Amino acid sequence: MCEATVFVSKGKDLEKVMEDVVELRREGDKLLLVDVFGEQRIISAKVGEVQLMDHRIVLREG
């Protein structure tokens, strides 16, 4: 499958934000995350790294 787990970088730690994310879209200065079930979450962050093979997206606060 193509879902990803989204984390936010907090210093050296990663905080899990959402699992099974199938859509990540910019909404102004924020990011909209949508999971496979249609649940949505808007957060204030920037994309730090995307690891498609690991199904992992790391965001930076901001």
In the sheet with the most strands, the strands line up as 4-3-2-1-6-5
For the record, the count of structural domains works out to 1
Q: What ranges have pLDDT less than 50 throughout 5 or more consecutive residues?
A: none
Overall structural class, as computed from helix and strand content, comes to mainly beta
What's the end-to-end separation, in Å?
29 Å
Share of helical residues: under 10%
User: What is the string of helix and strand elements?
Assistant: EEEEEE
Look at the structure and give the mean pLDDT: 95
User: Biggest sheet, in brief?
Assistant: 6 strands, mixed
Shape: globular
Radius of gyration: 11 Å
Number of E-type strands: 6
Number of helices: 0
Q: Please state roughly what percent of the residues sit in beta strands, choosing from under 5%, 5-15%, 15-25%, 25-35%, 35-45% or over 45%.
A: over 45%
Question: Could you walk me through the main structural features you see in this protein, from its secondary elements to its overall organization?
Answer:
The protein has a 6-stranded mixed beta sheet with strand order 4-3-2-1-6-5, with no helix packed on it. The protein has one domain (4-61). A hairpin with a 4-residue loop joins strand 5 (45-51) and strand 6 (56-61). It is globular, with a radius of gyration of 11 Å. The protein is 0% helix and 73% strand. By secondary structure, the chain is mostly beta strands. The chain has no helices and 6 strands. It has strands spanning 4-10, 13-27, 30-35, 40-43, 45-51, 56-61.
